[in-house]
Design a protein that fits this description.
By secondary structure, the chain is an alpha+beta fold. 44% of the residues lie in helices and 21% in strands. The longest helix is centred in the middle third of the chain and has 30 residues.
Length: 185
Amino acid sequence: MTEGRNTIDNGGESAAGIGTEAAVQLVYRPQPADTLVGLRVRQRIKRWGLVLRSVFLVLWVGQWLLVTLSRGSVDVISTVLFLLVVLLVGGYPRLQAAQVQRIVGGQGEYRTVVSDAGISTTNDHSTLIQKWSVLRGYREAPGHFVLLSRDPNILCLEVLPKHGLSTPEDVDRLRALLDRHSVRV
């Protein structure tokens, strides 16, 4: 070691802390469909949000039916409120995806490197480096790999769209890396 400079042998890792051997790189701009896929995967795994929304919707249907049957006719205000609730409950994932997309969409092009050391994502404004230990696992969707955080509420997730890969063989390489360092959930 020389004075004023630390020399660290990090086993073939790049300066960003992510290994370069057998790494798979994705280059993409996040699309609303990518965000929606990630949120739907999270929703299927967490299930409580779906259960609560279903119970809320059933209660509103019951309230609307009771009002309609007790009056003997359809109440316009109750019907409009009922339809509004159905639209909000049914459209909540899309509303949430649109909100997330406003945040990630303005970050520019994403360049993600997945390697044995972890996942490094860089965009026009920031860099995020994640070790494999922060992930609970991943789920593969038809056009995406969704990486889920270990926290109980799965507050963080990362969507890796397959359209960001440069070759079709990279899909198999990425799947092999994910299987080696994470579990399918």
